[in-house]
Amino acid sequence: MSETLNETSALALQMKIIDDPTWQQQRQAHWDEEHQDAYAECWPRTTVKAVKQLFMRGEINRKGLAKFSAGQRVALYFQLFPVQSREAFIFILGQLEGDEIANFNAHEKAGTFFYALLKIKSDIRHDRFADQSKAQRLAIFDWFWGDKFDLNRRVPCLVGGSSQPIDVIAMTVLRHFLSSIFSWMDCAEKHQPAPFWLERMDYALSAFDCLDEDAFSIQRYDGHDKNREGFQRVLWGLLAGPIKSAVNKLPAHIKEMNQIRDKLIVRFREIADHKPAFDSLWQHIDKHGVDFERKLKITFTLSEEQLIEWRSTITQGKSPTYFGDDDRHERWSSTEAIDSKLRRLLKRTDPLLDKAWADLFCKGTSNVELGADEEDLDEPWVQLELRKNINGTLILLYIFPESIQDVDALEVGVFDIISQLPVSDLFSWQYFGPI
């Protein structure tokens, strides 16, 4: 670690963790699992050693990291430093030199580092902010950004010995905020905690004051600005409606999601009352809807005995091979040939269920292939996922019904079929798929 770090400072006390044997063992395992091979494949041994020194000890060895660009080095400092705290960020910012200072602010990189504080990565084993509580993460966010969006805000500490402005764009803030909510609702089956961004709704919504009228165009954006494209997609999706169920079988946690969306809609209404372009967009969506595909999700639970039976029936008793052209068809939960796999199960339970399934998807068509690749959504695409829960195995069946006009009827039909199987905790809902 740099000699400029005072041994009695708050950060020095936090950095004592790097000498703890248990922490070292866990950190080494993290390095071996996620970083060693990734860096070793692309960089020379001396560079990998310098990266590991940063990761394990917080040592900034610019000579060893010289093959990285200034922007890459800044990203490494923030992402790999052993302690992710306000004191650590102040230290890192103070250590930046030359081109690193310019690259910290270039293309909103500063924003990227600090927006990450409000991301929830429950599916990732090693979250860089895992040691920080929710309150601590929010406190760091407040320290860096303040309580209201400000185009003229400056970094709240010295950057390489000088005061620096923050390169920030209102639409970026809103894209991060709205995307966190939209993605949370889109992945409702994962039972993720509510986004931290909801705790800073006032800050995010204050950025609406800085948007121009073009941000609320009723025309689909077709340019190269990822901020504008992403903002439009999630704003339209949230305005278009809540998660819905044609069979009124929404689980409690999804009802709570819809209630949170309702509160956001109330805030949107307050903003739209003072932004005519926003109000016009909203009226247009209320009248015409949005040209988004809905995807249908159905979840249910199988006991371990039922799971074994399903797997055996679908694979016809064959053990999956892990080599050869037929492997994808033998693994029972792969997307390959899902139609025929499920129909084996339905036919065994009741031949009428098999016929009902065929009628749902094949009405008006000669042969609908439900196992199409995800990239090719010209026809309905069905996939199975398995997730463990306390009652057994949660099965997620989700469908992109692109060639089906009446998605409500499809949901009712699929729900009715699945309800006649020996399953429990059956729920279904619809939300917006990709544009």
TrEMBL record:
Protein name (Swiss-Prot/TrEMBL): Uncharacterized protein
Organism whose genome encodes this protein: Corallincola holothuriorum
